[in-house]
Amino acid sequence: xxxxxxxxxxxxxxxxxxxxxxxxxxxxxxxxxxxxxxxxxxxxxxxxxxxxxxxxxxxxxxxxxxxxxxxxxxxxxxxxxxxxxxxxxxxxxxxxxxxxxxxxxxxxxxxxxxxxxxxxxxxxxxxxxxxxxxxxxxxxxxxxxxxxxxxxxxxxxxxxxxxxxxxxxxxxxxxxxxxxxxxxxxxxxxxxxxxxxxxxxxxxxxxxxxxxxxxxxxxxxxxxxxxxxxxxxxxxxxxxxxxxxxxxxxxxxxxxxxxxxxxxxxxxxxxxxxxxxx
Length: 278
What we know:
By secondary structure, the chain is of the alpha/beta class.
């Protein structure tokens, strides 16, 4: 399993180009290597997680193609994770390789699927919509996927998800845009694993925020607490690669500072273009 991070920021990117806070200034001074686009991940060359407005820039920055993507997982309907015009890049009028373009299976909640199917960018000839259900394992294009309910604020009646992926004896838990997941859900997750995770990407949006008034993301301290809980349940162990991911600009300093903090706990820090082979 090969995982590449095409973006690692929250909704506003990092730095926020309309912001002049200390962290935005420091990241700007650090240079483009520290810049973060909105979050998305490609797994191998055929699976993509989330489809935000920076997907083209993220693929260009990482120098990868998305031509072979056959499976798209969308965590929820927020615009940094679902940008409907992206589907237009796959349409016949904008794609010189349309005849060879693989059909795309989209696994997401019913709210997201409804938004896609009613969009002018929806191409029923090249798009298969699959509704995700809590803890219902499905195999899509050779990858086993388990949707786990996320703790996040979304549209009324919408169920956001994080995803467990299993393929070729390897496992990857993508847990971004969620607050700390309750213990019962983590125990449910453990049932789908044969052993500890190979990789876990954990939401780290709120960073060093001092006063937590938004319980739908993790602070840096909550990332540590979540990791301890996952270790106790047996979801991770010393062999697991845990990666802090999805950073908002105002509570998160440049990459080097984040690495210094999280490294003390054995946690890596995602950056745009980070490639992980397991």
